[in-house]
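Teaching note: in complex prediction, the entire set of molecules is handled at once rather than each chain in isolation. The prompt given to students was simply: 'Predict the structure of this complex.' The entities are:
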Amino acid sequence: MAATERPTRRSMGDRLYDAIFSNRVWRSIFRSGYPNTPRNQMLAVATNVFLHLHPTRIHRTHVKITHTFCLGGLSFFLFLGLTISGVLLMFYYVPSVERAYEDILRLDTDVRFGQLMRNMHRWMAHGMVLTVLMHMMRVFYTGAYKPPREFNWVVGVVLLVLTLLLSFTGYLLPWDQLALWAITVGTNMVGSAPLLGEPNRFVLVGGFQVGQNALIRFYTLHVIGLPLMAAVFMTVHFWRIRRDGGLAKPL
Amino acid sequence: MTTANPAEAQSAAVRGRARRQREEELLVWPDLVFIEFISAVVFTVLLVGLAVTVDAILLDRANPAVTPNPSKAPWYFLNLQELLLHMHPALAGVVVPTIALIALGAIPYWDTDNEGQGEWLSGPRDWLNVGVGAAVASIGTLMLILFDDGMHAKIYESLTGSKFPISWLVNMREFQKNFPLWPTCTPETLKDGSCALGPLEWAKSIPLGKVLRTDLLGLPALDLNVNIPAVLVEQIIPVTMMVGLPILLSLVAYKRGIAQTKREHMILQFSGFIAVYVTLTIVGTYFRGQGLALGPYTIFAHQ
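The expected output is the structure of the full assembly:
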């Protein structure tokens, strides 16, 4: 058995503690004991796949809310929330010109918590665009893009673009007047590019005007293509933060 | 007091620094994980509250036959849609955003100095540069938008009751129509004295197809006529503004001693960029009504 900080006097609470945190099931899952000692606290972070994105120790100033305003973390949090609410929305939504709008109406009126889920998804999407933009501003104003973090800033710019594209592709899905014409205006902007504009617009929309082809393309990009790309770039983004020693520190 | 062996003193200092660094550190569990957990809870509660109280908008079923007036892109692209009103669509919709993104990505490769990282605007003039950049850029953008809307001509007309005298200075479209003025003299008008300044029909005045004979190479014949006033108004003037005004800002800031280091110029320009982005978004969202005319507007006017 691994060395633990076993209390010397065994009271009722101690025995209960051991029963819960030193049994084979707990150990098989978490490997270290309950994180109530510095050693176990560090092990809790280092041996957990989700928490090990963090280092085990962090500079005192970096946990100050006003240093980061949690903006990067919030963006990731919103991405996770969007994934969960998005999967739930996918249960009820069929990306067809005939059904899409009716599915949204049904979601709002017939499905229990359907309207709530859709509202959550919409507000989190707006929120994520905002938090990503503000995160970029925070990183710039704290000079956190400076060496050795140059390339991670570039990855961040890619993630900003992916966030905008994710939001843009989702905008069409309700298939209402707002959706159709916003995407028409948006894709016409793409079409105005010199030389490659019109071919690109054609590929994006799948035709000369926004219709069934555009809907299925936007849907596929929205629910699988772009989230996967975002996940890949986020992995790189987080990995590099960790490799570069966490947040930037004053010299 | 006498000092000990310098090497020993130095190693003691290094040890001291290492110890101080350790003392400056906290454990991620619980100090950071706790904050992350609490902020996740707080934001979940806030978002549920928002989602319970405010419904996501849903208009009528999509109908390609009915174009709403105004038709707007999603809000984060309304800055580009606003730009579209003032310049060539290729410039506003593609070239400017592409260059802006490349410039954003290039920031760390331009400012390679290690100083001033890990702290909010640590330099002595950093906040000043944020303020100057944001103020000049947002006010300047608003003034350009108002100029292109002919606000000065409208004010003049409401004050004097007569038409604005310089037709080509009303806004850029009028400029395109009426400028440059050119003597429309012919031998006859010269003789009877009616020779006067008038707008020259520059449009399609340079038939490139007749110069570049692509048809001789077996390619389609170029039917390309350069509309010089349009090129001037939609491309040359906007590009000059978008490149020249930031350079002018940096030059003035440099001369006045506001921005001296590279990092300070970058803060100035970045703050200006953000301010332009925000100003264009706000104008495009809340101040573009029917026909995208300047005026208060809300999305709920749709319903």
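Point out the following to students. Residues 165-226 of chain B form one domain. DSSP finds eleven helices and five strands in chain B.
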